[in-house]
Amino acid sequence: MTMPTVRTGHPYYMYDAIAAQPEAIASVIASRREQCAEVAGTLAGRRRIYVVGIGTSWHAALAGAQIMAGGPECFAYNSFEFCASPPSITPADAVIVISHRGTKRSSYEALDYAVAQGAYTIAITSTNPGPRIQVADAGIRTVGQEVSAAFTVSYTTALTVLAMLNLAMAGRLSGSDNGLDALPQQVAGMLAAADDIKNVVAEHQGQRRFIAAGWGANRANAYEVALKIKETSRADGEGFQIEQLLHGPFCALDSDCLLTLIAPAGNDRGRAGDVTRAAAALGTPVWALTNRPGAELADAGARIFRLPDCPAYLMPVASVVPLQLFTYYLALARGKHPDLFQQDDPLQAAARAHYDL
């Protein structure tokens, strides 16, 4: 299985990868269902599960640890921290390493450590990964390696695999009501609403800062969109857990920021409404991604993008898609190349010589 080829007419590979997601997610669901059921049978008997990654894959690990509630206690670890200050892993544990290319040093060293401790190991990776990641007991392949450095389809398909493992541990992977079958079409529906996102970018492309906030598993996507904005536009972006935003960082907001709220239906203890009203008092524009009933956020002044109705364990897949589109169109609007990790900038390229990944 490789990533579907999509000819979009767009100049950059990042968009091709975003556009490929409905077909890619459907392919992963169909082709990896049996393997996920088998792997989950082993996971369910473990003491603890550690989900490990770096960069975008760390955000996938954060979301994964939240959505994998159908089995043993689950923890997210940054790959670097997992190596620098490792937890006490035993053969009773499982370690899931997420690495799209399988070539990031911290991630394969984390896997090496887990193997040495006798843990059951799983690598969620591409269909053609580097050799070091292939030492895992189980390798769950998603899509072919992306050309663009702004990983998109590899992120959503990794999240899909984590959701499938969760469903399998809960005995629901083969059910007709688990939301998987509807997910590819829901993603396609959000891609079809690209003009709405273009309009948000057109209105706010010149903002000084781009702030995102969410909670639960969607907190990871607040971090993810801030990372992608930096990688693709070199703009100032930052992601927060929604409550943490109010405990100091909110003091830096003003009318020259755009605040993006990832606010699906669920218990946020009223904070999405509080943050929207507080931002309005500052003159800070708010873009809210939501599927909640009622018009509280719109009435408070937020511009609304409608998320689909899907289970909480699939919402991180759904909520990141409009954020990826926003990131892509922002890069275009600001005249930046979204595929190159800013290596077309001579200073960034010179700096890159001083570190490896």
| CATH topology description of the largest domain | Rossmann fold
Order of helices and strands: HHEHEHEHEEHHHEHEHEHEHEHH
Tally of alpha and pi helices: 14
Gyration radius from CA atoms, angstroms: 20 Å
Characterize the structure shown:
This protein has 357 residues and is α/β, with parallel strands linked by helices. It folds into two domains: 13-181, Glucose-6-phosphate isomerase like protein, domain 1 (Rossmann fold), CATH 3.40.50.10490; 188-333, Glucose-6-phosphate isomerase like protein, domain 1 (Rossmann fold, 3-Layer(aba) Sandwich). The protein is 45% helix and 15% strand. The strands form two sheets. The chain has a five-stranded parallel beta sheet with strand order 2-1-3-4-5, sandwiched between helices. The model is unreliable at 1-5 (pLDDT under 50).
Structure described in brief:
The protein is of the alpha/beta class. It has 14 helices and ten strands.
Topology:
Layout: H1 13-19, H2 21-43, E1 48-53, H3 56-67, E2 73-78, H4 79-84, E3 94-99, H5 105-116, E4 120-125, E5 138-141, H6 153-169, H7 183-192, H8 194-204, E6 209-214, H9 219-233, E7 236-241, H10 242-246, E8 257-262, H11 271-282, E9 286-290, H12 296-299, E10 303-306, H13 315-333, H14 346-352
Parallel strand pairs: 1-2, 1-3, 3-4, 4-5, 6-7, 6-8, 8-9, 9-10
